[in-house]
Specification:
By secondary structure, the chain is α+β, with helices and mostly antiparallel strands. The protein has a single domain, classed as Roll (Bifunctional nuclease domain), CATH 3.10.690.10. It has 4 helices and 7 strands. The protein has a 7-stranded mixed β-sheet with strand order 3-2-1-7-4-5-6. Strand 1 (35-45) and strand 2 (52-58) form a beta hairpin. Helix 3 crosses helix 4. The chain is globular.
């Protein structure tokens, strides 16, 4: 049996993290083409895996996006959808409070595209009249937009995914 010392294991883990970070550090997809305003239809468990999925639909053209998210992220989206005010602030509530205290607000969210089966988004803040764009996970950006009543937009590149076999195209979640 081969045993690697603590330093060797830490070095291997650090190298793995660095390789992963460099791969994801590439520029996230930029919005391409027309932007479509979306509405959040809900969050539900995927029938095949049981994992939470957030469903969005275009207001104008009714095209749909569905994204797998984690259970904590699902909760962050469900609370404002159901207008539930938790007794203590969740992470999204805390972040929104920080943004407000710094005299900013969530202006809009843009789901910019899809790369390697992962969606990307940009959170656009208005900070004292200056627009600030932040790379964000779509689920976090959606949770903040719902709390702020900010528009959620999707670029043409976000619709590049092949429809899932489990749900006929156009069927409502």
């Amino acid at each position: 049996m081969c045993y690697a010392g603590k330093g060797a294991v830490q070095g291997t883990v650090a190298a793995s993290i660095l390789v992963w970070a460099v791969a994801w550090a590439a520029e996230p997809p930029q919005p391409t083409g027309t932007l479509y305003e979306m509405e959040v239809m809900g969050v539900a468990a995927d029938p095949a895996s049981g994992s939470p999925v957030v469903y969005l639909r275009g207001l104008q053209d009714k095209r749909e996006l569905s994204m797998f998210i984690g259970p904590l992220e699902a909760n962050g989206i469900i609370l404002p959808l159901q207008r539930i005010q938790p007794p203590r602030p969740y992470t999204h509530d805390l972040l929104l409070e920080v943004i407000h205290r710094l005299q900013g607000k969530v202006k809009r969210v843009v789901i910019t595209g899809l790369r390697d089966n992962t969606y990307f988004a940009t959170l656009i803040l208005d900070a004292q009249g200056k627009e600030i764009a932040l790379d964000s996970r779509p689920s976090d950006a959606i949770a903040l937009a719902l709390r702020e009543n900010a528009p959620i937009l999707a670029s043409e590149g976000a619709f590049a995914r092949i429809p899932r076999a489990g749900r006929p195209e156009g069927e409502k979640p």
